[in-house]
Amino acid sequence: MLSLITAGLAPAIALLFFFYFKDEYEQEPLSSVIRCFLFGALLVFPIMFIQYALMEEGIIKSTFMEAFIQTALIEEFLKWFIVMIAVFHHVHFNQRYDGIVYATAVALGFASAENMLYLISNGLETAFLRALFPVSSHALFGVVMGYYLGCAKFNKKKKVRFLFYSFFFPYLLHSSYNLIFLTQNRWMYFSIPFMIFLWILGIRKVKKANQSQRTFIQKNMAS
């Protein structure tokens, strides 16, 4: 059981600290980050219930509905909702990069709980691929979500637009990710390039968030 818990949690914790320490200016309180991580982990239960109910009611009738509604829409909306109500207006959310930290914490909390449930059902032999694909992808969806939440927090003129982006782009990426695994027999040929794209996109968002904070500090120093 200890090895299963370790295999389930380790990738998420490693990714969370990777993005946490990418903040070049002010790390968030660990208590706030851990709280978001736990909120994300608890999301797995209502999400599983909703997904099960959709299947039982026969609402999901195609692969596209499974990819775009049953999984991506429900998971990304609830993760976005938790970040909005838990930390978006919090005093510690005081720079653009903070959105990345908190959204990634929620995403990885969910991914770790989902991962452990999957490993319990399917065994530890799936742990490496789970870490490489589902856990990493959730982290990167969180990075994109958090980047645009940071933009929304500090750009009142475009707040509504950035809030929309903060849900829509992770949702679109998640749906695309799902389609690869649901429709392609040789999914490895498509999933690896897609994950490379996700990592490039995520790291660019990290750099842009830090650059925005750097520019903000320089302007304040100049004035």
Automatic annotation (TrEMBL):
EC number: 3.4.-.-
Keyword Cell inner membrane: no
Annotated membrane topology: Multi-pass membrane protein
Residues passing through the membrane, by range: 6-21, 33-55, 67-88, 100-121, 127-150, 162-181, 187-204
EC class (word): hydrolase
Transmembrane as UniProt keyword: yes
Record keywords, A-Z: Cell membrane, Hydrolase, Membrane, Metalloprotease, Protease, Transmembrane, Transmembrane helix
Name used for this protein in its record: Protease PrsW
Organism taxonomic ancestry: Bacteria, Bacillati, Bacillota, Bacilli, Bacillales
